[in-house]
């Protein structure tokens, strides 16, 4: 079944090349080292498991067990200032792909790079530049699909979840990846304002109090260029990055 799903991904018109591994330290690291970069479509690097998965701010990302979707997409980009278009497109694509197999999923997009099911993380996203090319970007993501709670390290069991945990059913990881790629390419081609409206409607905890980089205020949403809007008393500031901690 896996071979069939991989072949279906390779057959997508947008996929110029695909590299599949049973195990790899990091799909993003491998993708960043590629010498042959896509001209118009994307190159896909995917693995059944990662031994050194990475998240935002050099944090590790749990991906050492099979049962997840671990992939990196190498994509052409008009300019690095356009990176949020790709962040938004992949966030929406993952949201829609999970919804297609789990219609009752209580999903939201937690700024800047997480997909939540309820109040638990089901997916992490990591975008990185490619040192040898300003015209390409790596869009990496890891989704907890068929991972049991006992498989997660104890320190994240209270904040992580999977499709299996939430639904009690197993899902085809690479069929899900194929669906994500199709949605991703559609969202990249969608008008930026229209895509952003969809993104805004799916954000996690808009209007609630939070803390970002030591600054406390109310999360007002996200600007079209990806900056977070934080209202502090009678003024509003915008932030380009930082961990968000919402008041419990």
Structure, described:
This protein has 248 residues and is α+β, with helices and mostly antiparallel strands. The chain has two domains: 2-201, 2-Layer Sandwich (BirA Bifunctional Protein, domain 2); 209-246, no CATH class. Helix content is 27%, strand content 31%. It has six helices and twelve strands. It has helices spanning 2-10, 27-32, 83-101, 163-167, 173-189, 192-201, and strands spanning 15-21, 42-47, 68-76, 107-110, 114-117, 120-130, 133-144, 209-212, 215-222, 228-232, 235-239, 244-246. A seven-stranded mixed sheet has the order 1-2-3-7-6-5-4. β6 and β7 form a beta hairpin. α1 runs parallel beside α5 and α3 packs across α5. The longest helix has 19 residues, at 83-101. The chain is globular and about 55 Å long. 35% of the residues are buried. The mean pLDDT is 93.
């Amino acid at each position: 079944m896996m071979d069939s799903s991989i072949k279906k991904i390779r057959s997508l018109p947008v996929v110029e090349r695909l590299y599949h591994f049973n195990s790899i330290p990091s799909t993003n690291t491998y993708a960043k080292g590629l010498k042959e970069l896509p001209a118009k479509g994307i190159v896909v690097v995917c693995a059944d498991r990662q031994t050194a998965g990475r998240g935002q701010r050099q944090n590790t990302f749990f991906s050492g067990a099979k049962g997840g979707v671990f992939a990196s997409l190498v994509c052409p980009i008009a300019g690095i200032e356009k990176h949020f278009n790709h962040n938004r497109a992949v966030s929406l694509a993952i949201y829609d792909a999970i919804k297609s197999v789990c219609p009752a999923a209580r999903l939201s997009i937690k700024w800047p790079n997480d997909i939540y099911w309820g109040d638990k993380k089901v997916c992490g996203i990591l975008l990185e530049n490619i040192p040898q090319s300003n015209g390409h970007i790596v869009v990496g993501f890891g989704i907890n699909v068929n991972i049991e709670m006992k498989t997660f390290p104890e320190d994240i069991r209270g904040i992580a979840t999977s499709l299996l945990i939430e639904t009690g059913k197993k899902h085809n990881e690479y069929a899900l990846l194929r669906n994500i790629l199709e949605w991703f390419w559609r969202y990249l081609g969608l008008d930026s304002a229209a895509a952003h409206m969809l993104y805004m409607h799916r954000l996690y905890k808009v209007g609630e109090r939070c803390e970002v980089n030591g600054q406390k205020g109310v999360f007002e949403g996200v600007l079209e260029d990806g900056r977070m809007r934080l209202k502090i008393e009678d003024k509003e500031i915008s932030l380009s990055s930082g961990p968000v901690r919402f008041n419990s």
